[in-house]
Specification:
Number of helices: 0
Radius of gyration: 22 Å
Distance between the termini: 18 Å
Oligomer: single chain
Strand content: over 45%
Order of helices and strands: EEEEEEEEEEEEEEEEEEEEE
Shape: globular
Length: about 270
Amino acid sequence: MNWKTYNVKGRVKSIIEFNYKQYIPDSALSNFVTKEYFKFRKDGNLEEQTTFLLNEEFQRRIVYEYDKAGNYTHLTAYDEDNSLAYKCTYAFDEEGRMIEFINYDRFGGVKYKDERTYDASGSYTSRGLGSGSDAYKYTYDSKGRPTSMETYYDNEKICTRKTEWKYSGDTVEATSYHHGSFEDKTLHIYNKNQQIIQYRSTSNYRIYECTNAYDANGNGTECICKISGELNKKDSYRHEYVYDKNNNWIKRTTYNVDGSLKSSIERKIEYY
């Protein structure tokens, strides 16, 4: 996570976000984040993230560490008294592929572990805490994009899940099968900046689709979602922004599709 993934411009040192609760139903306030602090290193990587709930109640502080390639190797979460809440460690090979992930609890015990070994084709086997292992077998096209993935769970010899990808210009289509039967098909259409402008998921039960729009700064301005052709008001929204001189937004107001206010966030940005 860095300046690019947060879509900020310039040498940003820190961001403080203030989320205003007056547009949020009382029933949703128990875990409502009202303030969030982001601290970036000089190389652009996120170093620290702290969140607060209603009435400045401390929720969590997360510290990130990175290797020389920019992969984060440690994610450590702390409670308000600076005691450990949980910790995740990551290890990568020379090609940037994750080869180990470990999740520790507050006492240092291992909650989850994922060790991966890769073959020459890019397929890998994942082994967790138990004796079993899961295999993920890939095929690729001439551009290095995945064209299929077969999943074999817990040392099984029969493929449990399979996904096939097709590419056409800015469109990516993925079809998934479970034990040989159709499960769902997803369609992603991207703009020239590799942002999703249309998404559609088709299953045996429904069709879920969203169309997205962006402004000149690359921030989303509209998301309209439908379920089987009917407008999904809950997931749909429109954004309006106020920008600083570096073209980073310092206020974002979110509206429901009927024009009513949904939320409002203001940001204070400090630069190096």
